[in-house]
């Protein structure tokens, strides 16, 4: 009983020590560590790198707008229904006269085209190179460069004026709507539009000029912006605190009322097409997308052809006519080749089988005897040891010397029998 009591006390003490250690560990952990939530922006996805308006597309879709992002010039060739809106980031090279007329007819029939001016007006040439803007009389003014110097930085600008522009970080313009709402949009202050013919029915102007115009064309409308940076994907600079923002930061759809302004601009459309790039896929990508089975068949044929022609690769062997050698040399080379293949096994086996066949024809009485009796009888007739006869007719060899000896004995037996 005393032993059980001591054991129980020891167990209680050990359990107390373990509980004390656990309690101290919990206290140390809670004192040393603290739960915090920290948001870390990850790397930009490949889709966001390819499509600068991906965030705008996701926002519009979440807001209930039917929107789709596309790339290439196909949507300019196959225009959507006139109830839709076509948002073109950059027209790039001018369309052919037929395609351009189709686009104008689509707008006049009720389509809504939203685009951005990317080519500055050249006073010297009297045009910008953007066919649509030139026909509408909308000019883009680029304060970065002097158009008369072929878009090179102007050396005639006053240094103080350039310094003033270089420190502009915001250009929030108030945009009123018919509903009475007013939103603020941060347009790039270095770009502005000029309505040379004063045909625009709506304008958005700020301290540095006009940044958006709407020109009616038939039953449709063309919306032209001086820049669309405020509609692009956000970057890290858009999430800085006010005190840590650089002098000039890259604005995006995540800043201010930009997302709301985009929704107000496009909410009444059946569907919005965001044409973010006119670059088409490469030839091989298009072939794989449009004719995948044909590509697989061609690759299979190529693999079969390469396999069929595998022995034809490499340099041609020189056509050399060596001197003709005599028969003894030929026989010697053939013997060396056979010896390298199986060390003479097949050659000696063939000779021995021929000898046994010849022996059965000449001495048929030996066929009924056992191997030992046959060897003894042949040994008596040839005056050779019986074990040598057995090794020659039924045994094996390991070295070249044994092969020569057995072949010689085989020839001797044939002569004496």
Task: Break the fold down into its secondary structure elements and pairings.
Elements: H1 2-32, H2 46-50, H3 54-62, E1 67-71, H4 74-77, E2 85-88, H5 97-108, E3 112-116, H6 131-136, E4 138-142, H7 159-166, E5 172-176, E6 182-186, E7 191-195, E8 202-206, E9 209-217, E10 220-225, H8 258-266, E11 272-277, H9 283-290, H10 292-308, H11 327-342, H12 345-362, H13 371-382, H14 386-394, H15 400-416
Parallel strand pairs: 1-11, 2-3, 2-11, 3-10
Antiparallel strand pairs: 4-7, 5-6, 8-9, 9-10
Helix pairs in contact: 9-10, 12-15, 13-14, 14-15
Key traits:
Rossmann fold; two-stranded antiparallel ribbon; 417 residues; elongated; 3 domains; 7-stranded mixed β-sheet
Could you please describe the fold and organization of this structure?
By secondary structure, this protein is of the alpha/beta class. The protein folds into three domains: 46-279, Rossmann fold (3-Layer(aba) Sandwich); 283-310; 343-416, no CATH class. The chain is built from 15 helices and eleven strands. It has helices spanning 2-32, 46-50, 54-62, 74-77, 97-108, 131-136, 159-166, 258-266, 283-290, 292-308, 327-342, 345-362, 371-382, 386-394, 400-416, and strands at residues 67-71, 85-88, 112-116, 138-142, 172-176, 182-186, 191-195, 202-206, 209-217, 220-225, 272-277. A seven-stranded mixed sheet has the order 1-11-2-3-10-9-8, sandwiched between helices. Strand 5 (172-176) and strand 6 (182-186) form a beta hairpin. Helix 9 packs across helix 10 (292-308), helix 12 (345-362) packs parallel to helix 15 (400-416) and helix 14 (386-394) crosses helix 15 (400-416). Mean pLDDT is 80; it is low at 146-167 and 239-249.
